Amino acid sequence: MEAAEYIDSQTRDFFGQLKEWLAIPSISADPARHDDVRASAGWLAAHLSGIGFPVVEIWETGEAGAPGLPAVFAHWPAADPAAPTVLVYGHHDVQPVEPLDEWDSPPFEPAERDGQLLGRGASDDKGQVLLHSLGLRACLAAGGPAREAPPVSLKFLIEGEEESGSPHFAGLLRSRAAQLGCDVIVISDTTMWAADVPSMCIGMRGLLDAEIDVYGPDGDLHSGSFGGGVPNPLHALAGLLAGLHDADGRVTLPRFYADVLPLSSAERELFARLPFDEKAWLAEAGHSQAAAGEAGYTTLERIWARPTAEINGMWGGHTGPGPKTIIPREAHAKVTFRLVANQDPADVAAGLREYVAAHTPPGIDATVTFGGPGVRPCFSPIDAPAVQAARQSMALAFGKEVLFTREGGSGPEADLADILGAPLVFVAVGLDADRIHAPNEKVEMDLLLKGAEAVAYLWDKLAAVHL
Amino acid sequence: MEAAEYIDSQTRDFFGQLKEWLAIPSISADPARHDDVRASAGWLAAHLSGIGFPVVEIWETGEAGAPGLPAVFAHWPAADPAAPTVLVYGHHDVQPVEPLDEWDSPPFEPAERDGQLLGRGASDDKGQVLLHSLGLRACLAAGGPAREAPPVSLKFLIEGEEESGSPHFAGLLRSRAAQLGCDVIVISDTTMWAADVPSMCIGMRGLLDAEIDVYGPDGDLHSGSFGGGVPNPLHALAGLLAGLHDADGRVTLPRFYADVLPLSSAERELFARLPFDEKAWLAEAGHSQAAAGEAGYTTLERIWARPTAEINGMWGGHTGPGPKTIIPREAHAKVTFRLVANQDPADVAAGLREYVAAHTPPGIDATVTFGGPGVRPCFSPIDAPAVQAARQSMALAFGKEVLFTREGGSGPEADLADILGAPLVFVAVGLDADRIHAPNEKVEMDLLLKGAEAVAYLWDKLAAVHL
What we know:
Number of domains of chain A: 2
Strand content of chain A: 15-25%
CATH class of the largest domain in chain A: Alpha Beta
CATH architecture of the largest domain in chain A: 3-Layer(aba) Sandwich
Shape of chain A: elongated
Largest sheet of chain A: 6 strands, mixed
CATH superfamily of the largest domain in chain A: Zn peptidases
CATH topology of the largest domain in chain A: Aminopeptidase
Oligomer: homodimer
Structural class of chain A: alpha+beta
Mean pLDDT of chain A: 96
Low-confidence stretches of chain A: none
Radius of gyration of chain A: 25 Å
């Protein structure tokens, strides 16, 4: 039986199972729902055992006295011990549902409407996890009666704390690294461009956050007595911040672009083919917005594939009503840098320290404090064998060319790649219109089925290439 | 009898009278002391009548239902109707006295100690008002028995709300302009350089205050989704603020320096002769301070005679703990400009509007709001006849060359010059060390007597020049 035919035959069962799982209110941010998160892990573990996974484990997280929420691990080795190992990542916890009165139907009573399935978690991420179950069964069915195992050694790691900031995830990866060993990681927790424009995300930006603190006089000075004769910390900070970019919108930190992997012409060409409505995108930002940024790049290139420096906040001196004629003693700013492959947050941190030291005027002291080590960018080149395999699988399922996107944001996915030492491939069928994290979350039911079909092809294709 | 000899003979009486006046706690900022402010006005009116002023009036201020505090006006016409008219300005209200426990003796029980008179108002400004009474009597005595009136037509205007921001003063000047008509205004409410360095202030800076409000997106944006592709209001504001000065520390507003009266080489030379200890001045500002400002000028020139732009406060975006990856919707700054002769606050305001409009990037809206019309600078050239007359009078009294200073701050004195249309001359013997506005305010008793001697000479000298 062909994979597509198998999937057709299973559609009602598949959505019945998904609705059962969605009915469990596994809100990880709400301590009152933690038993539900555990029930959700239990449901998934039973389901995976039921479809044939020989190894299914519930992995507790946290410590005695401060327990975390469980992840589900499953493993189905390939018949061929030389076959590559693939780890599928997703999560089974969901976002809170407030405000409840904005939902058209109760968030944990999944409802079908015009080809959409409504309910918390339908798109983020239970629907996209469960499509792997259906896809795997279709893959097995398509292999004929002789196929008793997937063509790749398949591992699932479905965490239960993603919507709470994954506090134990990196620790879990490290302590379970031996069991999690893999050649490629498939992430099904993102979106594609549009229902009629299948696409794959191939990178996410990294992040570094810092606070710059600037100090001048020992106390606020009277600007009549001192104004014009001593440096003003607010001027100094404004200069430091304004100087972060040159006239071309490029970040001026030393060595900031040294390790940046340039956009390939193939990727730029594929980005350019996305039907991007810049006016509509700007209108989302605000009524008077204009495109702006690094010279020589399109908006999509700027927000996906180029590093940035943003001031997120600043304050100092008199901020109450009316004037106050002071030279204030101090000024502060919070800045973040979005990073792209192959920038290292530690190098950018060193560059920022150097920049601030070099541009702080005499009579002013400035310090730079980082919130943490930062988040590394992640990126898979479009010509990587696993990316090509996924692209071909999606193209087969959708019957269309598959384009590429990146994400401008940053996520814990980079931890997966770093700690497990394997490349990432994002195979996902969510849409920006799915209202994830908001009332009336939905998923397009036919896209879930297309996703299942894509992964039904993917394991064979991955088994055939050298990863 | 010589003026100096007369003053010597009156010393005990003079300080006895001053102590009597200082004992009245005329704190204008404290409603519980308003009867004392009225008593202080009554004491001065009786005193001025007692020494011979033919016209003495107590001028109430404010309105029925919202009364202000009274000023004292006195007028003693010259015998010669062609003699110039001089208006002496000072104030009889005093600052609050908290913290009381830091006073070595009670603030309203004036005490003599080592040639100093301690008490609230001793220097600011009752002592410096009363020296005019003694000076005038010395002038009359020095003129011999035939002199029954001062050589100039002398008017005193001693207000009662100076330490409360002079809320009714400009209105009083306007409504009483006919009675206050004069050829020159003598201000005795400032300081000289040092006890052994007699000096005259010849100018005060003006002031304009503004708020710059910058708006971008309709709400805070996620910097992962939009960062690098749309303008950031904090960047825009930092750019506007950093750009207020060029590399030479000059303010970049259009036409900002167009009307600035250049420092004369004579004034620069006299400033340079002041024994200014820059290191000590910087240490007052803070332990790590360095001199900074407009290229080509000394610190005293920068803070007294050159206009400035200062950022007094700025804020926007996330200012709480931790990072927040936003492009904020708005950013704000408070700025003030110190102005010098002959800048007009209205012209500077127009220049700021123009500057902000020209340097606001596409996609950002910026508005500029002014706190009021601003304060005009005031200035009397050192070669003005009245300034020369005062300088010679002080030089005679002190037996030393008299140098010149300016004040970097701004005061209501400019209102006097503007509304009455007469030039200002600052004749004062206060010191920066007098602890005005602080506990243990004092005045140097011999400086008050030197001041009285100087004004004893001043009226004759002013009568002799063409004003």
